[in-house]
């Protein structure tokens, strides 16, 4: 259900604490969430405090007619799966967000597919530091054009389902930031709740769902396919990589 390959060597780190806005923020106008998109202050959200987390801090509430913090606390139905009993609850993000350190931002069941091995690059640090030229489509601070997907968009994963720690755990990925992952541990791995695990950190949620036997992925061409949790690790890695010539056509 996973690979045994060592993570690739990291490139230079630009800012260890960077956590910018996610792909799911920028597509809000295209999923009938223009009003929510307009609440977000993209200028202050990525510049103040020096670590990219300012959209959870008081200075980003009501500045310039924006309220990024309120936006981050808002449920986006399109990013939730009805099969997940967690139900889109508020989840923990930031220890400095006192007194509500467990109820900061809204859950998502959708994450970008960044890498076939390790979306954090270094195997241990939970901050997404994808600066080593990730091999997937949706890595942090690494642009990917359709022209860069030389394996073909119909053969390359782009978005996949993720789950959290279960109802009342306040642990899950969230849509405002952070929601990328890797396929290194397979689908419904033992590190996920559907795989029989107990999740203790939102950063390590592999691709998983409460659908029996696997989860859904959006491919680069916009099509959606259900991939089995029994998929071979090499096949899953080949579907993840965008430009390695390892094209798979019969995995689903």
């Amino acid at each position: 259900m996973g690979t045994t390959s060592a993570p690739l060597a990291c490139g230079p780190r630009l800012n260890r604490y960077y956590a910018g806005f996610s792909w799911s923020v920028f597509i809000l106008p295209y999923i009938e969430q223009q009003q929510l998109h307009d609440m977000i202050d993209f200028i202050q959200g990525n510049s103040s405090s020096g670590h990219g987390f300012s959209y959870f801090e008081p200075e980003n509430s009501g500045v310039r007619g924006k309220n990024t913090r309120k936006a981050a606390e808002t449920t986006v139905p399109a990013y939730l799966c009805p099969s997940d009993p967690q139900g889109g609850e508020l989840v923990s993000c930031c220890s400095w967000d006192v007194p509500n350190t467990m109820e900061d931002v809204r859950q998502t069941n959708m994450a970008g597919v960044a890498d076939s091995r390790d979306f954090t690059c270094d195997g241990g640090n939970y901050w997404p530091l994808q600066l080593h030229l990730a091999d997937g489509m949706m890595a942090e601070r690494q642009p990917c054009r359709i022209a860069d997907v030389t394996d073909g968009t119909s053969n390359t994963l782009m978005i996949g389902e993720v789950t959290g720690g279960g109802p009342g755990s306040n642990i899950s990925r969230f849509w405002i930031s952070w929601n990328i992952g890797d396929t290194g541990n397979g689908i419904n791995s033992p590190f996920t709740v559907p795989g029989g695990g107990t999740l203790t950190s939102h950063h390590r949620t592999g691709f998983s769902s409460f659908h029996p036997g696997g989860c859904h992925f959006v491919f680069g061409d916009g099509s959606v396919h259900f991939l089995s949790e029994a998929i071979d690790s090499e096949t899953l890695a080949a579907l993840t990589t965008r430009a390695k010539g390892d094209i798979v056509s019969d995995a689903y």
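The longest strand covers residues 110-115. Residues 233-240 form the longest helix (8 residues).
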